[in-house]
Amino acid sequence: MLKTTDAMTARKSFGALLNQTYYQNQTTIISRANKAMAALISIELLASIHSYSESLKAQIQQVAKKNDLSETAALDLANEAKEFARKSA
What we know:
Layout: E1 2-6, H1 7-12, H2 14-24, E2 27-32, E3 35-40, H3 43-66, H4 71-88
Parallel strand pairs: 1-2
Antiparallel strand pairs: 2-3
Helix pairs in contact: 3-4
């Protein structure tokens, strides 16, 4: 579930937002001047994102080693592939 609120409202009702995040697994986007500035997410979602990120880093390191590339070159190649996939979709 995704909700958006402005920063002032988030500040005034932080406890309620925290409870909604924890008990209802709600994600809240916090904005200022109609610009998304931050997100309040559950600890489980944060752990999942972190785990996925670490997995991707390990895969990039494997590709770099297998193809005799620096880790930076492999990361650049992965970013190029990501951009190509986004444009092709």
